[in-house]
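Hey team,

Filing this mostly as a record. A colleague (T.K.) asked me to run one chain through the structure pipeline before their review meeting, and I want the input and output archived in the tracker in case anyone asks later how it was produced. No errors, nothing strange. Just documentation.

Input sequence:
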Amino acid sequence: MAKNAKIHKSMSARSKGFIGLVLLLAITVIVSFLSVSGVHYGEDGVMQLLPWVPVSSKNWPESLPLSRALGGGEYVMLYASVAEGENLEEELAASKKSVEARIAALGETDAKVTVEGNALRVELPEMNDEALHSWIEFVSMPGKFDLQNVSGETVFSAPFAKTSVAPNSANNAYEMTIEFSKEDTQALNEAVAANGALFNAFCDGSVVAYYVSVENGKVVMNMGQDLNTASNVAVLCLNPVTVSLSYTHDGESEGEVAATSGAFLSIVLIACAALLVAGAIYLIGKGKLTGVSAIITVWCAVMLECFFYATLVRSTVTLINLLMLVVGLVLALYAAALRTKEISKLIGEGNTPKSANKLGMRTAAKKVWLAHGVLLVLSLIMMIFGFSKVAGYALCCGVTASAFVTPVMRLFQASFIAMTGKAASFGKVK
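Output structure:
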C-alpha cells in the first residue's frame, strides 16, 4: 500500500515579513514605553527602572539630572565657628576651596560655593532631602585622620595632605598611601618610635582600616582586591583636602535655587518634537514605507542616545550638554534622510525595492559615515579639555547611537519588502 505523503506548505515570504514586522514593532513599542514611563518591578514593586527619555520639562526623568540653570537646585548655608585667635575670613576662604574640591571629587560639575558673612553657601542641582544631606555631610566633614595603637589609644592625629591608590603585585591587592605635611610627618615618626609601626586608622571618628603600617613617614593601608572599594575609600573617607572649620546647619538654612534657563528647556523639547514631526512628514512623503523605516530608526537613536547618557555619562545635563544631544538627533535625521533619498531615487530609476534598498544604503554610506566620523573626532577633542569634557561625552552618545541603530532600518525594510514587492510603496515611481 502506498504511503500517504504529508505535504507541508512552506511559509510565504509575505507571512515571514508580517511576523518580522510585528516582532520589530512589539519590541520598539515596549522599549519606547519603558524609556518614557519606566516601570516598577520586584516582589513588592519597590524596585524601579527609571525612564530615560524626556517628553516634558515638567516631568523630566530623574535619570537625567538637570543643572541648576535648567532645573533649579538646592542651597544650604554652613555656619562656621572659629577658635579664638584664628582669622575667620582666611579660614572661610580656605574651607571654600576644600568644599569645592570635595564636590568635584564626587563628580559634580555644576555646583557653586560662596562665602556669605560667617557662612558658606553651597548650591547643588535639585535632589531629594536624603541625598542633599548626605552630600552636605561629606563636603563639610573635617577630614581629620587618627591613628590608634593596639590598646585603642590615639597616638597621632592630623589632617592629610595627599592620598593615592595603587596595585601591589606582591600581595595581589590595592594599597592606599596617605601623606602628611612636613610638620605632621615628623609627629608621625615620633608616634612610630614610641608605639611601633602597626596602627588602626580612623577618619573623623570612623574606622577606615585595621593594622595599617607606617613606612618612611607615610601610612600604607591594604584595601584588598576591589579597586572600586579602594577608590571609594580614597575619595569619600580620605579625600586629600581638609575643611578647616566646624560647621552647623539646620532646616531653616536650606532653600531652593530658581532655574534661570528653565524656559529654554521647554523650547529645546518643543524644537526636538518639531524636528521629529517634520522629519517624519518629509521621510514618509519622500520614501513611503522607506520613510516609515527611517523615522522609526531615528526614534530608536533618540532612545539609545538618552540611555547612553543616563547610564554611561551619568552627569548633570547642562545647557551645552543638552545641545550636544540635540546634535545627535540631527545626525540621526540626516542619516535617515540621506538613505531614504537615495533609495527613493533608485526606485524612480526603475530598480526593484530589494535592489534599490541594498544599493541606496551603500550609496549613502560614504556621506553618512563621513558625518559620523567628523562628529566623533570632534567629540574626542572636546573630551580632552576639562571645560568641555562632559559635552564631548554627550556628543559621543549621539554619534554612537546613530551608528548603532543602522541595522534597525535594514530590518524594517526587509520586513516591508517581504510583505510587498510594489516599488511605488518605497519611493516615487516615474
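Quick notes for T.K.: The mean pLDDT is 84. The first strand starts at residue 39 and ends at 41.
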